[in-house]
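Sanity check. The docking grid for D-[(amino)carbonyl]phenylalanine depends on where the pocket ends up, so I'm generating a full predicted complex first rather than guessing from homology. Inputs follow.
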Amino acid sequence: MTREIVVGAAQLGPIEKEHTRRDVVDRMLALLHRAHGMGCDLVVYPELALTSFFPRWYMEDQAEIDAYFEPAMPGNETQPLFDEAKRLGLGFSFGYAELAEADGETHRFNTSILVDKAGTIVGKYRKIHLPGHAENEPYREFQHLEKRYFEVGDLGFGVWPALGGNIGMCICNDRRWPETYRVMGLQNVEMVLCGYNTPVHNPPAPEMDNLSNFHNHLVMQSGAYQNGTWVIGVAKCGPEAGVPMIGQSAIIAPSGEIVAQATSLDDELIVAACDLDRCAPYKSTVFNFAAHRRPEHYGLIVERTGAEPPGSGG
Ligand code: ING
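Predicted complex below; grid placement will be based on this.
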């Protein structure tokens, strides 16, 4: 009996400032029903799926900013998604801006959750690699203020037993950093869920704009292969608030091969039957960490502390 998860990557096209959460949840429900019709077990939605990608706008008024956050999950607007997924027997994952109260303080994270077929939130991840900047940079065609609106995630990279396998999550910029996949790889992850909002144009490095789609798949395919895991990359894409964002959502096998890819810049569902047992051949041979990986010999210099590499006699 194979351990197969039929995955639906539910790409979302542009969400404009005037779109309500109800508008978006209706679009997510349409994709959920299509996924159910195609026999999916799990539906994966993008990063910050409920609103327009608001870090592109410089705001100072906290109430204006907090209008993009969710103080509860599920909340009134997202409860229908939880209810329908449970009724249909589907697991799902999506990203949102989380408003969290802890120790009498308010915290704000770029968050993603994993919900099982019983409708239980079994995993939560808070984005660690926050790209962009914290202050207004008017030179940019558009801003990228994740460092202003979110705290760095405080939950690490988790891997949870769910849907018959080991499932982890990361968010957007995280996918560009090899550590992201390796920390989950060291926890025997078999499927990484990753939503993203990626503009074609990156103001600090416009010379790379023509490689945006290539870099998107490069990092996810590498992460999949080097850790023997499936990677599900799901875009919020298209010309959102006038900012072109890449699509090319993809379902990537542990071999690094793309087994399904979106071809539009709008709401689109791509589906693949993901056999989790395709992870083992990579984890037990080429990337058998116990047999071949030697971190104690890497001479890793602890960054920015000036620490001498081990054995350097410094
Ligand atoms: N978006 C982009 C991403 O990492 C970016 C930001 C674009 C960084 C291009 C570097 C190059 O895909 C988010 N939301 O992280």
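Relevant for the grid: The longest strand covers residues 91-102.
Also worth noting: The pocket of D-[(amino)carbonyl]phenylalanine is lined by residues 131, 172-173, 176, 196-198, 202 (CB under 6 Å).
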